[in-house]
Amino acid sequence: MTQKQLPDNLHPDTLAVRVAVDKSQYGENSEAMYLTSSFVQPDAATAARRFAGEEDGYTYSRFTNPTVTSMEQRLARLEGTQACIGTSSGMAAITLLCMGLLKAGDHVICSQSVFGSTLRLIAGEFGKFGVQSTFVSQTDVAQWQAAVQPNTRLLFAETPSNPLTEVCDIQALADVAHAAGALLAVDNCFCTPALQQPVKLGADIVIHSGTKYLDGQGRVIAGALCASQQLVDKNFMPVMRSAGFTLSAFNAWVVLKGMETLAIRMNAQSANALALATWLQAQPQVARVYYPGLASHPQHALAMRQQSGTGGAVVSFDVKAGNPADPVLARQQAFHVIDSTQVCSITANLGDTKTTITHPASTSHGRITEAQRQAAGIGQGLIRLAVGLENIEDLKADLDRGLRSLDTSI
Ligand SMILES: *Cc1c(COP(=O)(O)O)cnc(C)c1O
User: Are residues 298 and 308 in the same domain?
Assistant: First the structure.
Protein backbone atom coordinates (compact mmCIF):
# COMPACT_ATOMS: atom_id res chain seq x y z
CA MET A 1 0.00 0.00 0.00
CA THR A 2 1.37 3.44 -0.84
CA GLN A 3 2.16 5.45 2.26
CA LYS A 4 1.35 9.06 2.91
CA GLN A 5 4.51 11.05 3.49
CA LEU A 6 4.29 13.25 6.62
CA PRO A 7 4.98 16.91 5.80
CA ASP A 8 7.92 18.72 7.41
CA ASN A 9 7.54 21.12 10.35
CA LEU A 10 4.75 19.27 12.12
CA HIS A 11 4.10 20.25 15.73
CA PRO A 12 5.07 17.93 18.61
CA ASP A 13 1.43 17.02 19.35
CA THR A 14 1.10 15.74 15.78
CA LEU A 15 4.45 13.94 15.81
CA ALA A 16 3.49 12.20 19.05
CA VAL A 17 0.57 10.43 17.37
CA ARG A 18 1.86 10.10 13.80
CA VAL A 19 5.57 9.19 13.66
CA ALA A 20 6.08 5.46 13.07
CA VAL A 21 7.49 3.05 10.51
CA ASP A 22 5.44 2.45 7.37
CA LYS A 23 2.16 0.61 7.75
CA SER A 24 2.09 -3.05 6.69
CA GLN A 25 0.31 -4.11 3.48
CA TYR A 26 -2.92 -4.29 5.53
CA GLY A 27 -2.99 -0.55 6.23
CA GLU A 28 -3.54 -0.81 10.01
CA ASN A 29 -4.29 2.60 11.60
CA SER A 30 -2.96 1.62 15.02
CA GLU A 31 0.69 0.65 14.69
CA ALA A 32 1.28 -3.09 14.29
CA MET A 33 3.00 -5.08 17.01
CA TYR A 34 5.69 -7.27 15.48
CA LEU A 35 6.14 -10.04 18.02
CA THR A 36 8.82 -11.98 16.19
CA SER A 37 12.37 -12.82 17.17
CA SER A 38 13.71 -12.99 13.60
CA PHE A 39 12.87 -11.86 10.06
CA VAL A 40 12.81 -14.04 6.94
CA GLN A 41 15.28 -12.96 4.27
CA PRO A 42 14.36 -13.11 0.55
CA ASP A 43 17.62 -14.84 -0.40
CA ALA A 44 21.08 -15.64 0.96
CA ALA A 45 22.82 -12.70 -0.73
CA THR A 46 20.34 -10.19 0.76
CA ALA A 47 20.78 -11.82 4.16
CA ALA A 48 24.56 -11.42 3.84
CA ARG A 49 24.25 -7.71 2.92
CA ARG A 50 21.82 -7.02 5.76
CA PHE A 51 23.95 -8.79 8.36
CA ALA A 52 26.99 -6.83 7.13
CA GLY A 53 25.07 -3.58 7.52
CA GLU A 54 25.38 -2.80 3.80
CA GLU A 55 21.62 -2.80 3.27
CA ASP A 56 18.75 -1.78 5.54
CA GLY A 57 16.47 -4.58 6.62
CA TYR A 58 15.36 -6.34 9.75
CA THR A 59 17.21 -9.53 10.68
CA TYR A 60 16.94 -10.25 14.38
CA SER A 61 14.99 -8.52 17.15
CA ARG A 62 17.95 -8.25 19.51
CA PHE A 63 19.25 -5.55 17.12
CA THR A 64 16.18 -4.03 15.55
CA ASN A 65 12.44 -4.62 15.33
CA PRO A 66 9.86 -2.50 13.46
CA THR A 67 7.68 -1.87 16.54
CA VAL A 68 10.74 -0.82 18.53
CA THR A 69 11.83 1.36 15.59
CA SER A 70 8.46 3.14 15.63
CA MET A 71 8.87 3.92 19.30
CA GLU A 72 12.46 5.07 18.74
CA GLN A 73 11.56 7.33 15.81
CA ARG A 74 8.66 8.91 17.68
CA LEU A 75 10.71 9.62 20.82
CA ALA A 76 13.66 10.95 18.79
CA ARG A 77 11.34 13.41 17.02
CA LEU A 78 9.89 14.60 20.33
CA GLU A 79 13.34 15.01 21.93
CA GLY A 80 14.73 16.67 18.79
CA THR A 81 17.54 14.14 18.31
CA GLN A 82 18.48 12.36 15.09
CA ALA A 83 18.30 8.90 16.59
CA CYS A 84 17.14 6.83 19.55
CA ILE A 85 17.70 3.31 20.88
CA GLY A 86 14.95 1.63 22.90
CA THR A 87 16.21 -0.42 25.84
CA SER A 88 14.74 -2.95 28.24
CA SER A 89 14.71 -0.45 31.15
CA GLY A 90 15.86 3.03 32.11
CA MET A 91 18.85 1.49 33.88
CA ALA A 92 19.73 -0.49 30.73
CA ALA A 93 19.83 2.84 28.85
CA ILE A 94 22.29 4.24 31.42
CA THR A 95 24.40 1.06 31.24
CA LEU A 96 24.41 1.42 27.45
CA LEU A 97 25.43 5.08 27.82
CA CYS A 98 28.41 4.21 30.02
CA MET A 99 29.51 1.18 27.99
CA GLY A 100 29.29 3.12 24.75
CA LEU A 101 31.28 6.14 25.94
CA LEU A 102 33.66 5.06 28.69
CA LYS A 103 36.71 2.88 29.15
CA ALA A 104 38.98 2.20 32.13
CA GLY A 105 40.68 5.40 33.26
CA ASP A 106 37.89 7.71 32.04
CA HIS A 107 36.18 10.07 34.46
CA VAL A 108 32.48 10.90 34.95
CA ILE A 109 31.00 13.86 36.84
CA CYS A 110 27.53 13.17 38.14
CA SER A 111 25.02 14.97 40.32
CA GLN A 112 24.85 13.44 43.80
CA SER A 113 21.06 13.75 43.60
CA VAL A 114 20.51 11.32 40.70
CA PHE A 115 18.37 8.19 40.93
CA GLY A 116 19.90 5.81 43.52
CA SER A 117 20.54 2.95 41.08
CA THR A 118 22.29 5.37 38.70
CA LEU A 119 24.62 6.40 41.50
CA ARG A 120 25.40 2.80 42.40
CA LEU A 121 25.84 1.81 38.75
CA ILE A 122 28.32 4.56 37.94
CA ALA A 123 30.26 4.56 41.23
CA GLY A 124 30.06 0.84 41.99
CA GLU A 125 29.67 -1.28 38.87
CA PHE A 126 31.63 0.92 36.45
CA GLY A 127 34.10 1.70 39.24
CA LYS A 128 34.96 -2.03 39.22
CA PHE A 129 36.07 -1.63 35.60
CA GLY A 130 38.27 1.36 36.35
CA VAL A 131 35.87 4.21 35.53
CA GLN A 132 36.45 7.12 37.92
CA SER A 133 33.57 9.27 39.15
CA THR A 134 33.01 12.45 41.15
CA PHE A 135 29.60 13.31 42.64
CA VAL A 136 28.74 16.98 42.96
CA SER A 137 25.94 19.33 43.96
CA GLN A 138 22.81 19.25 41.79
CA THR A 139 22.56 23.04 41.74
CA ASP A 140 26.09 24.48 42.14
CA VAL A 141 27.64 24.72 38.65
CA ALA A 142 30.99 25.78 40.17
CA GLN A 143 31.31 22.33 41.75
CA TRP A 144 30.88 20.67 38.34
CA GLN A 145 33.48 22.99 36.87
CA ALA A 146 35.91 22.30 39.73
CA ALA A 147 35.52 18.53 39.28
CA VAL A 148 36.70 18.57 35.65
CA GLN A 149 39.84 16.49 35.01
CA PRO A 150 41.83 15.92 31.80
CA ASN A 151 40.20 12.45 31.53
CA THR A 152 36.60 13.68 32.06
CA ARG A 153 34.46 12.21 29.27
CA LEU A 154 30.92 12.49 30.55
CA LEU A 155 28.73 14.73 32.72
CA PHE A 156 25.49 13.13 33.88
CA ALA A 157 22.51 15.07 35.29
CA GLU A 158 18.88 14.47 36.10
CA THR A 159 16.45 17.35 36.55
CA PRO A 160 14.31 17.88 38.55
CA SER A 161 15.79 15.50 41.11
CA ASN A 162 13.98 12.89 43.14
CA PRO A 163 12.52 13.43 45.74
CA LEU A 164 13.47 17.08 46.50
CA THR A 165 12.83 18.40 42.94
CA GLU A 166 16.12 20.33 42.78
CA VAL A 167 16.62 21.78 39.30
CA CYS A 168 19.99 21.96 37.57
CA ASP A 169 20.90 24.35 34.78
CA ILE A 170 21.23 22.16 31.66
CA GLN A 171 22.65 24.95 29.50
CA ALA A 172 25.37 25.79 32.07
CA LEU A 173 26.33 22.10 32.47
CA ALA A 174 26.48 21.66 28.68
CA ASP A 175 28.92 24.58 28.55
CA VAL A 176 31.11 23.00 31.26
CA ALA A 177 31.05 19.65 29.45
CA HIS A 178 31.88 21.03 26.02
CA ALA A 179 34.70 23.27 27.30
CA ALA A 180 36.19 20.10 28.82
CA GLY A 181 35.80 18.10 25.59
CA ALA A 182 33.20 15.93 27.33
CA LEU A 183 29.55 15.11 26.62
CA LEU A 184 26.48 15.95 28.72
CA ALA A 185 23.82 13.28 29.25
CA VAL A 186 20.51 14.26 30.88
CA ASP A 187 18.01 11.83 32.39
CA ASN A 188 14.75 13.45 31.25
CA CYS A 189 12.48 11.05 33.06
CA PHE A 190 10.70 13.59 35.28
CA CYS A 191 9.83 16.16 32.62
CA THR A 192 9.75 14.17 29.37
CA PRO A 193 10.09 16.02 26.05
CA ALA A 194 6.57 17.36 26.59
CA LEU A 195 7.99 19.80 29.18
CA GLN A 196 11.75 19.88 28.60
CA GLN A 197 14.05 19.14 25.65
CA PRO A 198 17.61 18.88 27.00
CA VAL A 199 19.16 18.78 23.52
CA LYS A 200 17.77 22.24 22.76
CA LEU A 201 19.64 23.44 25.86
CA GLY A 202 22.92 21.90 24.70
CA ALA A 203 22.81 18.34 26.07
CA ASP A 204 24.28 15.64 23.81
CA ILE A 205 22.40 12.60 25.03
CA VAL A 206 18.98 12.15 26.62
CA ILE A 207 18.16 9.15 28.81
CA HIS A 208 14.66 7.90 29.57
CA SER A 209 12.99 5.47 31.83
CA GLY A 210 9.99 4.66 29.62
CA THR A 211 8.56 2.99 32.70
CA LYS A 212 7.55 6.40 33.98
CA TYR A 213 5.66 9.10 32.06
CA LEU A 214 6.30 7.86 28.50
CA ASP A 215 4.13 4.81 29.12
CA GLY A 216 2.41 6.87 31.78
CA GLN A 217 0.06 4.18 32.97
CA GLY A 218 2.36 2.02 35.06
CA ARG A 219 2.27 -1.00 32.75
CA VAL A 220 5.77 -1.81 31.51
CA ILE A 221 9.48 -1.48 32.22
CA ALA A 222 11.24 0.27 29.33
CA GLY A 223 14.00 2.74 28.57
CA ALA A 224 15.64 4.73 25.79
CA LEU A 225 18.75 6.64 24.83
CA CYS A 226 18.42 9.55 22.39
CA ALA A 227 21.46 11.06 20.63
CA SER A 228 22.92 12.08 17.28
CA GLN A 229 23.02 9.53 14.46
CA GLN A 230 26.79 9.51 14.67
CA LEU A 231 26.91 8.68 18.40
CA VAL A 232 24.21 6.04 17.97
CA ASP A 233 25.95 4.39 15.00
CA LYS A 234 29.52 4.59 16.29
CA ASN A 235 29.21 4.30 20.09
CA PHE A 236 25.90 2.78 21.06
CA MET A 237 24.57 0.43 18.36
CA PRO A 238 27.67 -1.84 18.45
CA VAL A 239 27.26 -2.23 22.25
CA MET A 240 23.53 -2.79 21.83
CA ARG A 241 24.04 -5.64 19.35
CA SER A 242 26.53 -7.41 21.60
CA ALA A 243 25.11 -6.67 25.03
CA GLY A 244 21.41 -7.23 24.26
CA PHE A 245 19.66 -4.57 26.33
CA THR A 246 16.77 -5.14 23.94
CA LEU A 247 13.37 -3.57 24.48
CA SER A 248 10.62 -6.12 23.79
CA ALA A 249 8.30 -5.31 20.89
CA PHE A 250 5.31 -5.57 23.21
CA ASN A 251 6.71 -3.06 25.71
CA ALA A 252 7.81 -0.77 22.86
CA TRP A 253 4.24 -0.80 21.53
CA VAL A 254 2.82 0.11 24.94
CA VAL A 255 5.25 3.05 25.21
CA LEU A 256 4.53 4.06 21.59
CA LYS A 257 0.82 4.32 22.37
CA GLY A 258 1.56 6.02 25.71
CA MET A 259 3.42 8.79 23.90
CA GLU A 260 0.23 9.68 21.97
CA THR A 261 -1.24 11.17 25.16
CA LEU A 262 2.04 12.28 26.75
CA ALA A 263 1.65 16.06 26.42
CA ILE A 264 -1.98 16.01 27.55
CA ARG A 265 -1.12 13.90 30.57
CA MET A 266 2.00 15.89 31.51
CA ASN A 267 0.14 19.19 31.37
CA ALA A 268 -2.85 17.90 33.32
CA GLN A 269 -0.71 16.15 35.94
CA SER A 270 1.50 19.24 36.33
CA ALA A 271 -1.59 21.41 36.81
CA ASN A 272 -2.86 18.99 39.48
CA ALA A 273 0.59 19.00 41.12
CA LEU A 274 0.70 22.81 41.23
CA ALA A 275 -2.76 22.96 42.79
CA LEU A 276 -1.82 20.34 45.36
CA ALA A 277 1.54 21.97 46.17
CA THR A 278 -0.18 25.34 46.65
CA TRP A 279 -2.75 23.77 48.94
CA LEU A 280 -0.12 21.82 50.93
CA GLN A 281 1.88 24.99 51.46
CA ALA A 282 -1.10 26.48 53.28
CA GLN A 283 -1.62 23.55 55.66
CA PRO A 284 -0.53 24.15 59.28
CA GLN A 285 0.78 20.56 59.61
CA VAL A 286 3.17 20.96 56.64
CA ALA A 287 6.65 22.34 57.36
CA ARG A 288 7.90 22.70 53.79
CA VAL A 289 6.82 21.93 50.22
CA TYR A 290 9.30 21.07 47.46
CA TYR A 291 7.88 21.87 44.02
CA PRO A 292 9.58 23.82 41.20
CA GLY A 293 6.26 25.41 40.22
CA LEU A 294 6.05 27.31 43.51
CA ALA A 295 7.64 30.76 43.77
CA SER A 296 9.18 29.58 47.08
CA HIS A 297 11.31 26.96 45.26
CA PRO A 298 15.00 28.01 45.13
CA GLN A 299 15.27 27.31 41.38
CA HIS A 300 11.75 28.45 40.47
CA ALA A 301 12.86 30.90 37.78
CA LEU A 302 15.25 28.41 36.15
CA ALA A 303 12.60 25.68 36.23
CA MET A 304 10.02 27.92 34.58
CA ARG A 305 12.48 28.74 31.81
CA GLN A 306 13.69 25.20 31.31
CA GLN A 307 10.45 23.25 31.81
CA SER A 308 7.92 25.01 29.56
CA GLY A 309 6.60 27.06 32.47
CA THR A 310 5.55 24.03 34.50
CA GLY A 311 6.80 22.34 37.65
CA GLY A 312 6.18 18.75 36.55
CA ALA A 313 4.08 16.25 38.46
CA VAL A 314 6.27 15.34 41.45
CA VAL A 315 5.67 17.17 44.74
CA SER A 316 7.35 16.44 48.06
CA PHE A 317 6.65 17.86 51.50
CA ASP A 318 7.85 17.65 55.10
CA VAL A 319 5.30 17.13 57.84
CA LYS A 320 5.88 19.21 60.97
CA ALA A 321 7.56 17.30 63.76
CA GLY A 322 9.13 19.84 66.08
CA ASN A 323 11.90 22.33 65.40
CA PRO A 324 14.45 20.84 64.93
CA ALA A 325 12.43 17.87 63.70
CA ASP A 326 12.45 14.80 65.93
CA PRO A 327 13.20 11.92 63.50
CA VAL A 328 11.15 9.32 65.37
CA LEU A 329 8.11 11.57 65.59
CA ALA A 330 8.61 12.76 62.00
CA ARG A 331 8.51 9.20 60.71
CA GLN A 332 5.38 8.44 62.76
CA GLN A 333 3.64 11.53 61.41
CA ALA A 334 4.64 10.78 57.80
CA PHE A 335 3.50 7.16 58.09
CA HIS A 336 0.19 8.37 59.56
CA VAL A 337 -0.45 10.68 56.59
CA ILE A 338 0.51 7.95 54.09
CA ASP A 339 -1.58 5.27 55.82
CA SER A 340 -4.61 7.58 56.05
CA THR A 341 -4.88 7.87 52.26
CA GLN A 342 -7.63 5.87 50.58
CA VAL A 343 -7.06 6.97 46.99
CA CYS A 344 -3.26 7.35 46.56
CA SER A 345 -1.26 4.18 45.88
CA ILE A 346 1.52 3.48 48.39
CA THR A 347 4.30 2.67 45.94
CA ALA A 348 7.70 4.11 45.07
CA ASN A 349 6.93 4.14 41.32
CA LEU A 350 6.03 7.39 39.61
CA GLY A 351 4.78 8.60 36.26
CA ASP A 352 1.43 6.87 36.50
CA THR A 353 -2.05 8.32 35.94
CA LYS A 354 -2.71 7.06 39.47
CA THR A 355 -1.23 9.28 42.19
CA THR A 356 1.49 7.48 44.15
CA ILE A 357 2.67 8.32 47.66
CA THR A 358 5.90 7.19 49.25
CA HIS A 359 8.22 7.75 52.23
CA PRO A 360 11.66 8.17 50.60
CA ALA A 361 13.69 7.76 53.83
CA SER A 362 12.46 4.18 54.29
CA THR A 363 12.05 3.12 50.64
CA SER A 364 13.98 4.65 47.70
CA HIS A 365 16.58 6.13 50.09
CA GLY A 366 16.39 3.41 52.74
CA ARG A 367 19.74 1.83 51.88
CA ILE A 368 21.89 4.85 52.81
CA THR A 369 22.86 5.83 56.37
CA GLU A 370 20.88 8.37 58.43
CA ALA A 371 23.87 10.75 58.17
CA GLN A 372 23.88 10.46 54.34
CA ARG A 373 20.12 11.05 54.30
CA GLN A 374 20.49 14.13 56.48
CA ALA A 375 23.20 15.45 54.14
CA ALA A 376 20.91 14.85 51.17
CA GLY A 377 18.08 16.68 52.95
CA ILE A 378 15.82 13.63 53.00
CA GLY A 379 14.29 13.68 56.46
CA GLN A 380 12.03 11.14 58.16
CA GLY A 381 9.10 13.53 57.78
CA LEU A 382 9.41 13.76 54.00
CA ILE A 383 6.59 12.44 51.78
CA ARG A 384 6.80 12.28 47.98
CA LEU A 385 3.77 12.43 45.74
CA ALA A 386 3.77 11.69 42.02
CA VAL A 387 0.51 13.35 41.12
CA GLY A 388 -1.83 11.60 38.70
CA LEU A 389 -5.07 12.42 36.94
CA GLU A 390 -7.57 12.03 39.76
CA ASN A 391 -9.81 15.00 40.59
CA ILE A 392 -7.82 17.54 42.59
CA GLU A 393 -10.50 17.81 45.32
CA ASP A 394 -10.32 14.06 45.92
CA LEU A 395 -6.53 14.26 46.23
CA LYS A 396 -6.69 17.15 48.71
CA ALA A 397 -9.28 15.28 50.79
CA ASP A 398 -7.11 12.16 50.69
CA LEU A 399 -4.13 14.00 52.19
CA ASP A 400 -6.25 16.13 54.50
CA ARG A 401 -7.58 12.98 56.19
CA GLY A 402 -4.15 12.23 57.67
CA LEU A 403 -2.93 15.81 58.04
CA ARG A 404 -5.87 17.13 60.03
CA SER A 405 -5.49 14.38 62.66
CA LEU A 406 -1.80 15.18 63.27
CA ASP A 407 -0.82 17.02 66.43
CA THR A 408 -0.29 20.60 65.26
CA SER A 409 1.02 21.79 68.62
CA ILE A 410 4.52 20.56 67.67
C1 LIG B 1 12.97 4.98 37.45
C2 LIG B 1 14.09 5.83 37.05
C3 LIG B 1 15.19 5.28 36.39
C4 LIG B 1 15.35 3.83 36.10
O5 LIG B 1 14.37 3.37 35.23
P6 LIG B 1 13.91 1.84 35.15
O7 LIG B 1 13.01 1.82 33.98
O8 LIG B 1 13.25 1.51 36.46
O9 LIG B 1 15.15 1.02 34.96
C10 LIG B 1 16.20 6.15 35.99
N11 LIG B 1 16.13 7.48 36.25
C12 LIG B 1 15.08 8.02 36.89
C13 LIG B 1 15.05 9.48 37.13
C14 LIG B 1 14.02 7.22 37.32
O15 LIG B 1 12.99 7.78 37.98
Answer: yes
